Amino acid sequence: MSIGENVAANLPYLRRYARALTGSQQTGDAFVRATLEAALADDDLKASLEGGRVPLYRAFNKVWSSAYLEVADQGADAADLPGDVEADRLQNVTPLNRQALLLTTLEDFTIEQSSEIMEIPAEEVEKMVQDAIAEIDRESATSVLIIEDEPLISMQLEDLVRGLGHDICGTAATRTQAQEVVAQKTPGLVLADIQLADGSSGLDAVDDILSIGSVPVIFITAYPERLLTGDRPEPTYLVTKPFQEATVRAAISQALFFNSNREDANA
User: pTM of the full predicted structure?
Assistant: First the structure.
C-alpha cells in the first residue's frame, strides 16, 4: 500500500480520535490537517507513514503534543497553533491517561502500539489506562437518552449506562419517540444510532434536541467513515458497531469530561 493509500484508508479514524481528544470537530480536524502538512514538509516523516496506522497516529501525537505544550507555556504564540484553533480551546486539555484510554478502546490499539504512538514506556501506558478507568468510576451521574432501534443493543446500552451510575431518562427507536422523551425531560447525554426503525435519521433526532439546548452526543454506527470526511458539520464522538463496552464507556467519559469543563467555564 502506498503512502497516499495508507493515509486515505486511516484518515477517517484519525479524525475520530482527534475529535474525541479535543472535544471538537473543528479543532480535531485542524490538528489532522496540521499533521498532514507536517508530513508533506518532512521527507522522513512522510516516508514513515507507509507503515500503517501506528506511524500516522504517532505523527499526529507529535503535532498535538507540541501544540498544547506551547499553550501551557506562558510565552506561547497562538500563531504557532493550527490555523483555526484558538489557544483557549486547549486550556482544558485531555490528560495523558485519557489519551491512553482512547487509543486502547476507541481506536483499539494494543498497549504496545499505544506506547509507540505516545512514546511512553508500555508499563506507564498500562497504568494510565487503569487510572483513567478509575476516574470513570468517580464521575458525576447524569441522565441519558438512548436512541436505538435494535432492542438488544438498546438493552445492552441501558445496562452499561446504569452500570456507570447514570440514569436512563428514556429510550427511543424513532425520531418521533425521541421528541416525546425530550418533551418530558432534557437529557444530560445522548447515545444515538444513525438509521432508525421507521427510516428516520438519528442525526435529525439529535438536531431536534440540540435546537433546545447544548447536550453532549455520542453516535453509534456501523459506518463511521461516512461521518468523518471533515467536509460538513459532523459528530464529535463516534463509536463503531459492533462495539466493545469499554469503547462506549471511554466515549461517555470523554464527552462528559468536556461538557463538565464547558459548564465550569460558563458558571
Answer: 0.86
